[in-house]
Backbone:
């Protein structure tokens, strides 16, 4: 008796399920990789932005002015500078009139406009020079 | 009598449903895969070129120092090995010494055929000499560049921070406090890298400090 050697419906369904599962797994892997790459790119961008703001900040004396658009033009973000006394200065240092310089701490913040969150921050200690 | 075995309507419907479902699933997954792949490629490109520009800025702008060399055409007068133009920059920068390279790197950044190049040498690359008389290597920094622009920052006589797009040729004793490189790509993205030159801040810089911009 001649026997037809065909795939059964179960075999076909199982084979297709394996194929679909592989494609879905590969796609999931690629999308996960894309998300991590996007996160890395976002972090790189934010670091470039805060570095750009920091470089401009360190070119100035006293209370630094905001960076102009030709230096810092990143829609959706802005930079904020604050100057405070360095945490490394204690009361004795601050009252020591013979000290040549006091130490300031400049904080450079990168703020996301959409939610007002500080997404990156740099603190730089530098000597405080009397403008007189 | 031979009986012809045909599929029943139910079998055909079931098999077509399975086939269509699997096809839609595979097509959707493939489209998502391709989108993710293209997006990943683009982000990887952006990441690479951003890091490359940062590397060049850190190496050639951040470490730029005052360096002079005798100009044979000008009675052997010492001349600054620096030339800052709107879209071309020659700098001398401190560099890690790679086994006898000398501790300095001399470079020229410029745009040619939509490509950003850096000519560099461990021996002085002199702006006043013809390039074919000098020995250097060339590195391709970035493709698809539509424009390259430099800005030079310094303090004027009132101690105000100012910037110009060309470093004054008559002012030959020092380099700017900071240099910004702005690269515009053909896809419209703009990358900027501002770097204080070696040791420069509000109050300090290496080399001679004078007010150059009146």
Residues:
């Amino acid at each position: 008796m001649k026997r037809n050697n065909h795939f059964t419906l179960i075999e076909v369904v199982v084979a297709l399920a394996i194929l679909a599962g592989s494609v879905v797994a590969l796609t999931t892997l690629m999308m996960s990789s894309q998300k991590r790459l996007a996160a890395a790119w976002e972090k790189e961008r934010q670091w470039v932005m805060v570095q750009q703001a920091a470089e401009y900040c360190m070119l100035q004396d006293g209370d630094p002015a905001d960076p102009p658009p030709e230096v810092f033009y990143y829609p959706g973000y802005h930079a904020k500078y604050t100057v405070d006394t360095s945490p490394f200065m204690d009361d004795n240092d601050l009252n020591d009139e013979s000290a040549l310089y006091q130490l300031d701490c400049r904080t450079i913040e990168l703020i996301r406009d959409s939610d007002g969150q500080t997404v990156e921050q740099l603190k730089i200690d530098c000597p405080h020079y009397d403008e007189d | 009598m031979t009986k012809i075995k045909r599929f029943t309507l139910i079998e055909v419907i079931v098999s077509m449903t399975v086939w269509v479902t699997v096809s839609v699933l595979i097509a959707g997954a493939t489209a998502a895969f391709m989108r993710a792949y293209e997006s990943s490629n683009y982000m990887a490109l952006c990441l690479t070129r951003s890091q490359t520009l940062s590397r060049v800025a850190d190496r050639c702008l951040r470490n730029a120092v005052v360096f002079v060399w005798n100009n044979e055409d000008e009675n052997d007068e010492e001349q600054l090995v620096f030339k800052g133009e709107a879209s071309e920059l020659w700098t001398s920068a401190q560099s890690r010494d790679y086994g006898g390279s000398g501790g300095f790197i001399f470079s020229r950044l410029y745009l040619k055929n939509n490509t950003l190049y850096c000519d560099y040498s461990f021996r002085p690359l002199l702006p006043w000499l013809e390039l074919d008389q000098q020995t250097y290597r060339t590195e391709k920094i970035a493709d698809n560049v539509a424009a390259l622009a430099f800005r030079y920052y310094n303090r004027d006589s009132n101690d105000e921070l100012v910037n110009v797009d060309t470093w004054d040729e008559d002012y030959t004793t020092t380099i700017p406090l900071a240099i910004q490189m702005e690269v515009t790509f053909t896809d419209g993205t703009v990358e900027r890298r501002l770097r204080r030159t070696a040791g420069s801040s509000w109050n300090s810089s290496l080399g001679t400090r004078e007010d150059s911009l009146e």
Q: What stands out?
A: The CA atoms of residues 70 and 78 of chain B lie 4 Å apart.
